[in-house]
């Protein structure tokens, strides 16, 4: 006798369960249309001639080299800074740890292009510090190009590195260091042989993560790079020039390292990580890993980083609320009223509406996908899973590029519609939620669903009364994360916005590029305020059930 | 008139991959009986329970519940409330909501739900804990909630999947007694899955012994214990001694068999069909053997005491006979007296049971 299984049997079972059938077919249709199809179009659009052009012009070679150099440098410093900052918080006895945590969290509220803006306000031509140096020391500060970009990207991506490394350091059981101390290791030797060794896979992971983010970032390179051109900026130029082929070539080049990193993360690092082997901390034992002198150094370092971050936000706020900061310091709400609350500048409102819609859809879609992939048997599950996770590996710039190339002509045209912006944001955030929810689904013991089934609930009732309520925390957390990312994204949607559907991050970028800094600053403040207010409302709705401000 | 058979399994087969988990299961279960599915892990007992509940569809055969063929009914239409091994309580609901869940799904009137939940909570001694959440309760209390959630459905049948395996030994014994009392009070049909023979012997009206996906024996606890039909059953339930023997004669339900190196004969009652010259096994329980008391019966073997173990109510002796085979004998109520050296083991013929060899 044989078990009834195989493709035929699972299709048959699917047809007996029409609601699942609809979910499976819709999911396939969506992912094929918006993930697989654009990828194929981009590959075909790139074409041989364009590859030849790309490799024959030194301008592109220089852009590629610049991209590699600047993103490696920024990733290196951001990772080192993030590591020291996290190490100080988790391993030393310094004061103000809570404050330092909070400081590392606030940049998440703003788009990374705001760091670029703040940098211009401080160190740009006519920036506060540049002018001060000029009048007092007659020193001409010029940080445009690689030096400025390096500094800005380091600061922009420092929180990402810090958070990734914090996760790694938290997973290291203090028992291990206590054991090593018990065996005679201390000071730098302890750090080198135990802590750093254990954290290394995670630190490399953080470096790679930051590197691919820098690699494809668009806003700051365009603002600060000057003549130091990067690939993402070149793509922008080619799109404006209607050279979709060349843009596709460069887009593919952006994707390659991202895919390699994605593969490395999945295959290599997950196996080589030791940090999962932990134990309960021995109560009453405290690891002492830093001397007083080290503590002092760490405290100074964290204070300097915090000072830098605070001054970036401070200068932005000052510009937003004064007539023309530095020249006319009178308090005013004019800028805010003009670019945030006026109907002629709907950027912030657009951001809010599109981000909310996209975040809701992303989480709902992630929920459906996770449910059918974990719980329902159907053919092609691996393909569906793969195409659902794939966008996580694709840089935002590339996602935007692929969508604009695929949907600006051909059988389906969506160019210029808000839908395309919502879809782009969704594609970037849905995989994160999908992964989280898949993990949560697997944690919900199957017997709990069986118990509901056994007591008379059909699949729909089981989902609505048991599964979804149990996943509420994960759902809300993912929604909040997706919403914040959507509010702040620039690279993903830069090719997709239209005059009607300008969003806040793009407005900041545009105003900053044209030198109307107070408006750029006002939009940034409006954007952050809107994000905070929305998070506040979510917090009120779900009360203690969700931790939003978890830093 | 409603039939006395509540559950009827006809030639049920289930296959996972290449693994034939249930082999031609035929079983009829009467109303109001406490039935135990007993066997080691992987023997198919849980698979059969889940097939009755509808979590698995059988690959061949028929499952009848209360005169209805349920092969194609999904679990939520079968009316077979189940108590899960890990309880599977809904973590986001209070005790009250957990227990009321099945009634709410059926859209029973609010007043009825209140009353029935209240009654069943009293029955399992949970009154006062309505507003607790599962994670705020002890394992024993969680187990009671799981029980109550199934009982409240007022279904004629209840399925229990090793419900006591996560409780400590003392609590287990307590719950066993209560469970049996509730079952008898309500006249429920209970199907109880366990690998614990003591649980099976102490609670059941009937025991179904599983062996590698097939039913080896279906009978009362006494039948299972004293008249095991296969070597497997005899071995799995309790401790026993096996002796090789040859059938000399089999007439009118009595067989004369020859055993031991000396070739002694003993006459044993049996309903097995045995032929002359057939090799069989004799099974005799350690407590049925007496040391140096030949007057107890007709069966005798000489042995040497190798070691012994004092277990309180009894002394367990490990002996070797002339062929070197190990014997276990339990001596009860013997005070300070101990046996050493060469002894004679004896048993009454009616305590010895013949098992046919060709059965696995």
UniProtKB/TrEMBL annotation, chain A:
Pfam families: BPD_transp_1 (PF00528). The chain crosses the membrane at residues 21-44, 64-87, 99-123, 143-169, 190-212, 244-264, 296-321, 352-374, 386-406, 412-427, 493-512, 518-542. Its main location: membrane. It is a multi-pass membrane protein. Residues 64-265, 348-536 form the ABC transmembrane type-1 domain. The keyword Metal-binding does not apply. Keywords: Membrane, Transmembrane, Transmembrane helix, Transport. It is found in: Cell membrane; Membrane. It comes from the Bacteria. Belongs to the binding-protein-dependent transport system permease family. PANTHER family: POLYGALACTURONAN_RHAMNOGALACTURONAN TRANSPORT SYSTEM PERMEASE PROTEIN YTEP, PROTEIN LPLB. This is Iron(III) transport system permease protein. It comes from Paenibacillus macquariensis.
TrEMBL record, chain B:
Gene3D superfamilies: 2.40.50.100, P-loop containing nucleotide triphosphate hydrolases. InterPro entries: AAA+_ATPase (IPR003593), ABC_SmlMolc_Importer (IPR050093), ABC_transporter-like_ATP-bd (IPR003439), ABC_transporter-like_CS (IPR017871), Mo/tungstate-bd_C_term_dom (IPR008995), P-loop_NTPase (IPR027417), Transp-assoc_OB_typ2 (IPR013611). Residues 7-237 form the ABC transporter domain. GO terms for molecular function: ATP binding. Keywords: ATP-binding, Nucleotide-binding, Transport. Pfam families: ABC_tran (PF00005), TOBE_2 (PF08402). Coiled coil: none annotated. The keyword Nucleotide-binding applies. This is Spermidine/putrescine transport system ATP-binding protein.
């Amino acid at each position: 006798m044989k078990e009834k299984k195989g493709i035929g049997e699972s299709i048959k079972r699917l047809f007996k369960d029409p609601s699942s059938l609809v979910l499976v077919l819709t999911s396939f249709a969506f992912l094929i249309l918006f993930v697989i199809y654009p990828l194929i179009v981009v590959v075909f659009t790139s074409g041989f001639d364009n590859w030849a052009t790309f490799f024959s012009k030194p301008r592109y070679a220089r852009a590629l080299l610049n991209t590699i150099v600047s993103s490696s440098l920024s990733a290196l410093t951001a990772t080192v800074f993030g590591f020291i900052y996290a190490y100080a918080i988790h391993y030393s006895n310094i004061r103000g740890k809570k404050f330092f945590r909070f400081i590392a969290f606030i940049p998440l509220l703003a788009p990374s292009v705001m760091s670029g803006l703040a940098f211009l306000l401080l160190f740009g031509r006519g920036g506060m510090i540049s002018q001060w140096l000029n009048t007092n020391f007659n020193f001409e500060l010029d940080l445009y190009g690689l030096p400025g970009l390096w500094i800005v990207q380091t600061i922009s991506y420092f929180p990402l590195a810090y958070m990734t490394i914090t996760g790694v350091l938290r997973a290291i059981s203090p028992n291990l260091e206590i054991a090593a101390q018990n065996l005679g290791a201390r000071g730098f030797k302890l750090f080198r042989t135990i802590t750093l060794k254990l954290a290394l896979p995670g630190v490399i992971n953080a470096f790679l993560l930051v590197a691919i983010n820098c690699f494809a970032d668009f806003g700051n390179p365009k603002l600060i790079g000057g003549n130091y051109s990067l690939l993402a900026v070149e793509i922008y130029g080619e799109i404006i020039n209607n050279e979709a082929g060349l843009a596709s070539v460069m887009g593919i080049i952006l994707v390659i390292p991202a895919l390699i990193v994605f593969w490395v993360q999945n295959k290599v690092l997950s196996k080589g990580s030791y940090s999962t082997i932990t134990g309960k901390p021995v109560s009453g034992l405290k690891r002492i890993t830093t001397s007083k002198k080290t503590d002092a150094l760490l405290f100074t370092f964290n204070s300097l980083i915090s000072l830098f971050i605070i001054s970036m936000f401070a200068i932005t706020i000052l510009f937003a609320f004064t007539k023309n900061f530095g020249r006319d310091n009178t308090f005013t709400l004019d800028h805010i009223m003009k670019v945030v609350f006026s109907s002629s500048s709907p950027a912030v409102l657009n951001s809010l509406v599109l981000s909310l819609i996209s975040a809701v859809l992303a989480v709902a879609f992630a929920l459906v996908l996770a449910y059918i992939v974990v719980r329902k048997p159907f053919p092609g599950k691996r393909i569906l899973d793969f195409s659902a996770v794939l966008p996580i590996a694709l840089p935002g710039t590339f996602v935007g590029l692929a969508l604009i190339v695929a949907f600006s002509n051909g059988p389906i045209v969506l160019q210029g519609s808000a839908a395309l912006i919502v879809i782009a944001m969704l594609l970037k955030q849905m995989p994160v939620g999908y992964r989280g929810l898949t993990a949560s689904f697997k944690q919900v013991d199957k017997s709990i669903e069986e118990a509901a089934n056994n007591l008379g609930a059909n699949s729909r009732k089981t989902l609505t009364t048991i599964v979804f309520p149990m996943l509420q925390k994960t759902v809300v957390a993912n929604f909040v994360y997706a919403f914040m990312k959507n509010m702040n994204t620039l690279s993903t949607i830069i090719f997709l916005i239209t005059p009607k559907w300008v969003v806040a991050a793009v407005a900041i970028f545009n105003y900053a590029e044209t030198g109307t800094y107070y408006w750029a600053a006002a939009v940034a403040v409006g954007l952050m305020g809107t994000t905070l207010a929305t998070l506040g409302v979510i917090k009120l709705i779900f009360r203690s059930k969700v931790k939003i401000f978890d830093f | 008139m409603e039939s006395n058979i509540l559950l009827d399994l006809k030639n049920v087969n289930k296959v996972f991959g290449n693994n034939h988990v249930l082999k031609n299961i035929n079983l009829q279960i009467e109303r109001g009986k406490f039935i135990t599915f007993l066997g080691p892990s992987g023997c198919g007992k849980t698979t059969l329970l889940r097939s009755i509940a509808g979590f698995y569809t059988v690959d061949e055969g028929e499952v009848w519940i209360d005169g209805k063929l349920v092969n194609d009914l999904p679990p939520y239409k079968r009316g077979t409330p189940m108590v899960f091994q890990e309880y599977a309580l809904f973590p986001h609901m209070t005790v009250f909501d957990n227990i009321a869940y099945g009634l709410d799904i059926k859209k029973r009137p609010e007043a009825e739900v209140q009353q029935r939940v209240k009654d069943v909570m009293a029955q399992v001694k949970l009154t006062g804990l309505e507003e607790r959440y599962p994670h705020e309760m002890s394992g024993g209390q969680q187990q009671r909630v799981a029980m109550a959630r199934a009982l409240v459905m007022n279904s004629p049948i209840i399925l229990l999947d090793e419900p006591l395996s996560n409780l400590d030994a003392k609590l287990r014994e307590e719950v066993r007694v209560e469970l049996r009392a509730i079952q008898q009070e309500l006249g429920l049909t209970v199907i109880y899955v366990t690998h614990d023979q003591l649980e099976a012997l102490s609670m059941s009206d009937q025991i179904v012994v599983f062996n590698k996906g097939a039913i080896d024996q279906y009978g009362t606890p006494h039948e299972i214990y004293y008249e095991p039909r296969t070597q497997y059953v005899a071995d799995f339930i309790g401790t026993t001694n096996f002796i090789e023997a040859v059938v000399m004669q089999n007439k009118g339900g009595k067989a004369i068999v020859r055993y031991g190196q000396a070739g002694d004969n003993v006459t044993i009652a049996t309903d097995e069909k045995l032929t002359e010259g057939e090799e069989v096994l004799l099974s005799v329980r350690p407590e049925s053997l007496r040391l140096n008391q030949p007057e107890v019966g007709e069966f005798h073997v000489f042995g040497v005491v190798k070691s012994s173990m004092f277990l309180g109510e009894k002394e367990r002796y490990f002996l070797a006979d002339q062929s070197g085979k190990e014997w276990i004998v339990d001596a009860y109520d013997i005070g300070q007296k101990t046996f050493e050296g060469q002894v004679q083991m004896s048993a009454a013929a009616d305590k010895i049971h013949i098992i046919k060899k060709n059965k696995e």
